[in-house]
DNA sequence: CCTGCAAATGTTATAATGTTTCAAATTTTG
DNA sequence: CAAAATTTGAAACATTATAACATTTGCAGG
């Protein structure tokens, strides 16, 4: 899959989204999973924002599409997308964001700007290593890691109040 | 503050709770904070379980005390306790747990057993270091870290189905 | 093509979690 | 004691998520 732009720097976001959708179709095909119209549309909506989107935000967008959707529709699509590694849930925000490393096996680390709301997903192998070490030092078998850092992105450190 | 027992190993839990309360009183006194009866009771309820307790679980306990409480009562107490470093919120569970390092400056890392529900709070300086490194490598100013590991505790790896 | 099954979606209702607002009581301070 | 600030009570409301069951759609075998 192709490289991604930094969310809090300007870039051609339409290309960003369409690349994500193309990647998603490839990934689903490889996994014999059905990226149905609803699922694809939800993925698109989430990708159109570099900021995490709540399930009910997605729902509102679907409704304004003219699609008569109810909460389970959205949650089911989100479950599917998560299961196939296409989106992540940000637990500290109750919101969802497109995975920038779809297809690669990884543990995401999320840098969440409290000022502008943008989120950058990193893969930090050294962090994962230390986490595993700390867990196994306690005899704990780690399965899933939630790692979310709130703070200020580079842009918001220098020019507060944008966006 | 005194050492703590491992939650998923048997220990004198009453002593564990009363020590936590004693520590809390000391900490609040030092910070000129008022550990009112409601706040202390909420802390006690949370400590009585080594497993994270939801806000509405706390509310139910208060009600069965005969205390006529509403959600804001609980959330306010929990806010206070978090602000003074006496409890942590576990974002991936929407639940709260007593801090085992109250009074020490620390970033908690939580090992959450998906089988028995017990949670162990660790301080892992190497992890914190790597997290800081990864964040500052992106020019990000990290403020608060959410680090929650779900998996199997030592006990549940060997004897499934207890508790 | 039809039939029957499994997966996906629609629909309604409800549960679980968290907040806003304003009033009353309590504690602190001068 | 009186004024100010903090804490608590109470009611309504907002947000996030799931349960349960009906219906439709996609697909494989006959
Ligand atoms: Zn990812
Ligand atoms: Zn920012
Ligand atoms: Zn702690
Ligand atoms: Zn366990």
TrEMBL record, chains A, B:
GO terms for molecular function: DNA-binding transcription factor activity; transcription cis-regulatory region binding; zinc ion binding. GO terms for cellular component: cytosol. GO terms for biological process: negative regulation of DNA-templated transcription; regulation of secondary metabolite biosynthetic process. It comes from the Bacteria. Its cofactor is Zn(2+). Pfam families: FUR. Gene3D superfamilies: 3.30.1490.190, Winged helix-like DNA-binding domain superfamily/Winged helix DNA-binding domain. Its main location: cytoplasm. Zn(2+) binds at residues 113, 116, 153, 156. Keywords: Cytoplasm, DNA-binding, Iron, Metal-binding, Repressor, Transcription, Transcription regulation, Zinc. It is found in: Cytoplasm. Binds 1 zinc ion per subunit. Belongs to the Fur family. This is Ferric uptake regulation protein. The gene is fur.
């Amino acid at each position: 899959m192709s490289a991604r732009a930094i969310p809090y720097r300007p870039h051609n976001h339409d290309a960003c989204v369409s690349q994500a959708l193309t990647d998603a179709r490839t990934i689903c095909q490889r996994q014999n999973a059905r990226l149905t119209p609803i699922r694809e549309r939800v993925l698109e909506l989430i990708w159109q924002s570099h900021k995490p989107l709540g399930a009910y935000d997605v729902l509102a967008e679907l409704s304004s599409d003219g699609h008569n959707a109810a909460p389970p529709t959205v949650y089911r699509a989100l479950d599917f997308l998560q299961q196939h590694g296409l989106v992540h849930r940000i637990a500290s925000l109750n919101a969802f964001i497109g995975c920038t490393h779809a297809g690669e096996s990884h543990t995401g680390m999320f840098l969440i700007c409290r000022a502008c709301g943008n989120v950058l997903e990193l893969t930090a192998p050294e962090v994962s290593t230390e986490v595993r070490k700390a867990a196994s030092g306690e005899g704990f078998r780690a399965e899933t890691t939630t790692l979310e850092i709130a703070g200020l992105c580079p842009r918001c450190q220098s020019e507060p109040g944008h966006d």
